[in-house]
C-alpha cells in the first residue's frame, strides 16, 4: 500500500469555508493518507504573545488573546460540525485545551520560567487544537479518522544544545504507531511543528516546523510523495510583488528549491527538503484553494531543462560587513576568528566572499544584527586595529542579496556575464559577488531599494516569463514533436493512430502529438492534438496545402520552453537541422531522426550533439537513416552489447540505385532507367542527389561513426554515376545529358555478366577506410542476388568473421521508414533509463 503525507498551512485552516476545501481534498485522497496540520492563521502568534506576556508579567492582553483564540475555534466548530450533541461534545474537547492554555499562563506568571521547554509547551496548542477540529470534522462526514499526537511519532535528541530528529527512534515509532493505522484504512491527522524530546518533553521544531514535520514523517514512513498545501500556486520564478510577470515553477530539483528557500522564498523552509532527498521522495507544493492547479514538483529526477536559470530570489534588510587590512594577508586563522566570534553570538551569515590576496573578507548578516556584529569584531580585533594590521571593520546597511538560481547554469557559458551586464545597464552598482563551485547559484549584493528593479530586469533577461506549468505526469505518456509532415511524417501519424489501441493496451504507452511542422511553420498544443485536428492536418497535406497560414504559426521557442515532461523531437526533414537538434536536446527532448544530414556534419559538431545527449541522459536515435526500416543499427547495438566488435560493413543502401542496377541488367539503357525512376518518384526531386552517391556516402558515414570511427564526409572515397560535365540544374536537361553514358554502362554491364558477375552500388566500411561506389560482385553472392529496391547490409565481426550476418529487406518507402521511426520512439518510451545506444 502506498502512503501519502499532506500538510495544510495556517491560511488554509483560517475559516470554515477554507476548511471545507481542506476536508474535500483529504476525502478525495483518503487511502493511506497522513495529514499534518498547522495552527489556524494567527493563532501561534497569539500564543507567543501569551507566553512572553506571562513570563514577563505583562498580562494586560492575556484575556483578549485567549478570547481571540477561543472565538476562532468556536467559529470553526460551528461551521463544520452540525448543531446538536455532537457539536457540544467537540466544543467541550476544544474548551478543555483552551483551559489548559489559561492554566499554563497562570503557572508561567508565578514561576517566570523563560526556557525552551516552557515556550514549546505553550505554543504547540495551536496545532493540537487544529488537529482536534479537523479530525472531528472528518468524523462528522462519516470518515474513518484517527488523531495521533506528534510526540508519538517524531522523537528528538539533544546534540550541542539543540534538538534534532532521532531517526532511529522516529522510524520505530512510525512503524509501530502510524503504519498500522494507515494500513487499516484510517485517515490520520497529526499536529505539526513539534516532537518529543529525550525526557518526554514537548519541543518545537522552529520556523517552518509544520512543513518539517510533514517531510520527516514522509521520510520515516517511506511515502510516495509529500504534499504541502498552501495559499499559493507553488514556488515562483520571482517574488510576484516585484515582478508581475513571475510564473509558477513547474519543477525544481531539490538543490534548486533549497537555494530559493534559503534566499528568501518564504513558501518553503530549506530545512523541510532535507529529509526527502536520501529516499528521493518528491515534494509537491499546491494551492489549497485551487487544488486542480499543478503546483510545483520538487524532486531529484528533475533535469535542468531548457532554462539554465530557473528562478530569482532575494533577501532584504541585510547588512554587509567587510574586514580589511594588508596585515591579514597570509595570516592563518583570520577567517576562522571572524566566523567563530559571530557563531558564539548566534549571528547567521548568508553570504561570504574573500579577496584572493586574503586582504579582505566580506560577509552578509541580518540587518538587525549588523551593528552588534561590527562591535564584536572591533573588540576582538582591537590589537590588530591598533597596529594597523586590520585597517577597518566596515558596516554597510540597507542592502539586499539577490540570488540567480538554476541547475542548468553549470556548464552553460555566459550566465554570470549576462547577469552582471544586465544589472549594469540599469545603473545598479554591484557591491559584492559570490558563486559556489557547483554554479547552482550566483549571488549579488546590491542596495536594497534597487532590488525590485534588478529582479525585473534579470527575470526578463532569462526569459522566465515563458515558463509554463507542467501538465499531468503520466509515466505511460511521451509527447511527440514531429518536424516534417511530408510523406514519412503523414504515414507516421497514420501508424500512430492505427496502432493506438495496441500501444495503449499492450505496451501501456500513449503518444500525444504536441507539435507538427512543415515549411510553412509550426503548430503546437499543450495537451496533444485531437484526432480530428490531426485528420485536418493530413487532409491539408494531401491537398498540397500549407500547414500554417501567417497568423496561425507558433514560434519554435515556445516548443523549447514548453512544460511537457517526457518528450521526443522527431526530425523527418531533409535539411541540415543540427542547430535545431542541439536546441531540442538542451530543452530536454529525446531525438529521433530519419534525416541523415544533421548526422553527416563535421565530426566535432556531431560529437557535441552526442555529448549533450549523454550529459542530459537523453536518447539520440536514428535507425531510419540507414536502410529505412531495416534493423541495421539495432543489430550493431546488440552485437556490441554482447561484447562483439564490428570489423567491416558492406551495404547496398539505396533502393533507388538498386532499382537502376536491376533495370540495366534487364537491358534497359541507363538514361531510360533513371528517367523511369524519376517519373515514378523513386528519386529525389533533383535526381543528382541520388546519382552523385552522396546520399549513400552519408549513410556510410553514419554507420562508420556508429561503430566508432572518427571520420568526416570528405574522408570517404566516393564514385558517382556521372561526370561533372553531365550535371545541370534543370532535371530534364540532366536526364537528357545522361544518354551520353548509355553505351559505357551497357558495355560495363555485359562485361560483368560475361564473368558471372553483376554491378552493385556498394558502401564498404572497414577500420582502415570507407568507400562508396560501383563494384563488380559475384552474381551468386548475397549482393548479387539482390533485386529491385531492396537494401542489404552484411556485418563482419570477431564472432561472425567467416560467415557474416546479413540484414536484408525493403530499404525505401514511406511505410518502412515511418515504421523505423516508430520503433525508435517505442524504444525510448519503453526504456527504464533515459538514453539509448545511439547517443
Describe this structure in words.
It is a single chain. The protein is elongated, with a radius of gyration of 35 Å. By secondary structure, it is α/β, with parallel strands linked by helices. It has 29 helices and 30 strands. Among the domains are: 4-40 and 126-231, Acetylglutamate kinase-like (Carbamate kinase, 3-Layer(aba) Sandwich); 479-627, NAD(P)-binding Rossmann-like Domain (Rossmann fold); 632-812, Dihydrodipicolinate Reductase, domain 2 (2-Layer Sandwich). The longest helix has 27 residues, at 85-111.
Number of strands: 30
The proportion of residues in beta strands is 15-25%
Overall radius of gyration:
35 Å
- Main beta sheet: 8 strands, mixed
What structural class do helix, strand and pairing data support? Answer: alpha/beta
Unreliable parts? 832-839
CATH level-3 fold name of the domain at 632-812: Dihydrodipicolinate Reductase, domain 2
CATH class type of the domain at 632-812: Alpha Beta
Give the overall shape. Answer: elongated
In short:
The chain is α/β, with parallel strands linked by helices. An eight-stranded mixed β-sheet has the order 3-6-2-1-9-11-12-10, sandwiched between helices.
List keywords for this structure.
single chain; 839 residues; alpha/beta; Carbamate kinase; Rossmann fold; Dihydrodipicolinate Reductase, domain 2; 8-stranded mixed beta sheet; 6-stranded antiparallel beta sheet; 29 helices; 40% helix; 20% strand; elongated; disordered C terminus
